[in-house]
Structures are given as structure tokens and as C-alpha cells.
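User: Sequence recovery, please. Input:
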């Protein structure tokens, strides 16, 4: 089980989580970017969280967790959200060095 949380935004703007050893570590840059993109697009479209959650078929609480980086949504959930927002997911695979 992973626990996610935020520090005071004035001190640290990057979402953090506890890893399996109890160490505080930042969320991946990719998850942070997705969270910010969803929140920014929702605000641009002047949707509140309740409206977007209802249109995407998820709870407002879960949407809040996604937007704040506290949840790691499935690809299916992301597709529902980005479809409502008029966004698209582009996946690029890179070989490990």
C-alpha cells in the first residue's frame, strides 16, 4: 500500500509519497505532469471538480486525489477524464540505457 500526501505548497510544490520503506519521495514527473494537466484544463474549461467527476463517472473525492497527485489512476480512468476534457494521451516508450 502506498500513501500519498502533499507538503505545504509554500515549502514544496512537488507532490510526495511514502515508499515501501517509509521514506518520503517525490511522485514521478510523469504523474505530476498528468495531475497538473488535468487540473489546469478543468480550470480553463471553467468546470468544477463535481462537474468533471460526474461527467467522467468517478467520485469528486477520487478526482481531487488524482489532481493533487495522491492517487495513481488506471489508464481506463485517465481516458474517461481526458475524453471529457478534450485532451489525449500520448505514450512514448524509450529503451532503458
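Assistant: Recovered sequence (97 residues):
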Amino acid at each position: 500500500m502506498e500513501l500519498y500526501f502533499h507538503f505545504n505548497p509554500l515549502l514544496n510544490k512537488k507532490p510526495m509519497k511514502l515508499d515501501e520503506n517509509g521514506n518520503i519521495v517525490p511522485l514521478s514527473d510523469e504523474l505530476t505532469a498528468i495531475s497538473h494537466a488535468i487540473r489546469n484544463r478543468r480550470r480553463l474549461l471553467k468546470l468544477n471538480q463535481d462537474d468533471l467527476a460526474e461527467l467522467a463517472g468517478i467520485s469528486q473525492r477520487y478526482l481531487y486525489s488524482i489532481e493533487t497527485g495522491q492517487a495513481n489512476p488506471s489508464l481506463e480512468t485517465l481516458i474517461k477524464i481526458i475524453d471529457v476534457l478534450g485532451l489525449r494521451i500520448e505514450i512514448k516508450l524509450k529503451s532503458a540505457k
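The helical segments are 29-44, 49-56, 60-67, 75-85.
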